Amino acid sequence: MRNFMQCPPILISLMVLFTFSGCASFETRVDSGFSYQSFPIAKGTATAGAGSTIAFRDSSLALAGPGISAGETLRSVKLAKGDLSLQDITETKGNVRIISVVPSLDTKVCEQQTHYLSEKNNGLDAKINLYTISVDTPFAQDRFAKEAKINNVTFLSDYRGGEFGRTHGLLLNGPHLLARAVLVVDKNNIIRYLQITPNLANMPDMEAAFAAARALL
To answer: What is the reported pLDDT for 131?
Structure first.
């Protein structure tokens, strides 16, 4: 096994972040529900695809794959569901969808982004479909959903090779994680809104995504 100190500095930084800011325990939960923190909200969006980078602390992480932008069609990719069966993301058409993309549910920003999607949508979940995609295994996603008491979001896993991330230009090339993003997709699989946070530590503007989804109803 390769010595820890021989790992690339970026990978070591990510490992430290996930260790000390992980959400495996829910000590921030209070009796009324999840306790939200004041994470910075990203302004603007990064560009998807090879040639673009995402800031992480004092480093830049390169994106891989062909880019995608608002106005384009969601690309056909199979993701794993909780029972390990595969779901083509494009076959979810017929309803407006918000797709929340997170690097890993085992970080506090990803945890909050997922709770925000579930709990702060002001009734949109009765009219549209909500998805969270990460590279966490389906088992880890299922455990997270149960512990967080989230039952109005469908979790899909890109753990099999990062195909969703690579196909949409959202795969962080070095650490093999997904960039942080939120997409609003219409009934015909057209991406109507896309924000990729330029800094991995920032929350996406979920309220802007909710507004974009409401405009499609």
So the answer is: 98
What average pLDDT does the chain have? 88
How is residue 76 written in tokens?
């056909």
Dihedral sign from CA coordinates of 180, 168, 208, 29: negative
- State whether residue 98 is helix, strand or coil: strand
Adjacency order of strands within the sheet including 177-178: 53-56, 59-64, 171-172, 177-178
Alpha-carbon gap, residue 26 to 31, rounded angstroms: 12
Nearest to 173 by CA among 44, 38, 8: 8
**What integer pLDDT is reported at residue 33 of this predicted model?**
79
The tokens describing 172, both together, are: 């962080």
Share of the chain above pLDDT 70, in %: 85
Q: Exposed, middle or buried: residue 40 (CB in 10 Å: 0-12, 13-18, 19+)?
A: exposed
Q: Which residues contact 200 (CB under 8 A, 6 or more apart)?
A: 54, 55, 56, 61, 103, 172, 179, 180
Q: Which of 54, 64, 96, 110 is catalytic?
A: 110
Please tell me the pTM assigned to this model. Answer: 0.85
User: Catalytic: 23?
Assistant: no
pLDDT for 40-67, tens place per residue?
999 999 999 999 999 998 899 999 999 9
Environment class of 142 (CB within 10 Å of its CB; exposed 0-12, middle 13-18, buried 19+): middle
Q: 156 with 50: CB under 8 angstroms?
A: no
> Tokens 């695809």 label which residue?
49
